[in-house]
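Risk register update: the risk of archive-format incompatibility is retired. Evidence:
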Amino acid sequence: RLERSRPQPTSDEIVITSFVPPTYPQASLDSGVEGVVVFRLHVTKRGTVSRAWLLSSEVDPACEMAADAALSQWTFLPYLVDGRPADILIDQRVRFQIGRPPTTRRTSRP
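Archived output:
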């Protein structure tokens, strides 16, 4: 039996309501670690992040953990399918660059 396919949102359909910025770990700064980490987030129909999977990383484990800790605290407006809240998966990038606070950007949806 085939599962009903849900429409995938565009970036403006997923609205962050509570943003917690990642903290750049001091040891990573001291070591000159820079790069991007990408997580897949399971956003529940209530708009909370229930799980985050590491998809790719150019940074050290300390930056990965900092990004995971921040992303897990984010909240979103519920994503609607046929007018009803639904769970959704989104991919989220976090860039760590020395001299700048970590930045985030949504990538293509899964």
